[in-house]
Amino acid sequence: MSNQTKIDPETFAYNFMKTIHRPEIEKKDMEAAAKEALAAYLSAYYLIQQFNTIENEFFTDHDARPRSSYQRILSELNNY
Description:
- The protein is mostly helical.
- 65% of the residues lie in helices and 0% in strands.
- The chain is built from three helices and no strands.
- The protein is elongated, with a radius of gyration of 17 Å.
- The mean pLDDT is 80.
């Protein structure tokens, strides 16, 4: 299906993690900062995996509702 959008989860998650603004990290706060970064990375990674799966299902779904595939995908993701 050439109309599908496929997002690389690793690239998306890494770039998302880089957008989180953090001040200088004190050595004592390093573990908490790492956990926060990991949570951001994993959340973005699995969200994109879910997006890719949902979009793939929608392209094979022949539902006649008058909504675009992307509207349906966003609706599904909002339920996540």
